[in-house]
Amino acid sequence: MHSARTNVIEVLQLIALKSEQIDLYEQAQDQISVPEVLLGRWERVYRPEKFGFEAAFDELESKQLNCFTDFFLARVNGLPPEFGELLKDPYWSAVCDFAGQVLDDFSAK
Hints:
Elements: H1 4-16, H2 18-27, H3 34-45, H4 59-76, H5 83-88, H6 90-107
């Protein structure tokens, strides 16, 4: 079982990297909504109420994760359902960029 930190970083990487999203989409047996799949994964790993979760992140990282979650949730419902359109959508690009920035900040420590 991975640590909370490892799980969060893995999902952030998937959100940040469109090439990983393409792989996810292509591996799916059925038509999937990539944002909904990623949101589900995010909600499974981002559990600040869970015992020990906050200990895996410093105060600044916790604030970044909370901001990212709010940003992601505010944009996910209005995204295009068609995957090709999603990859070109500026709101989805902003979510991906934000995830990448959080990862950059985590690795800079």
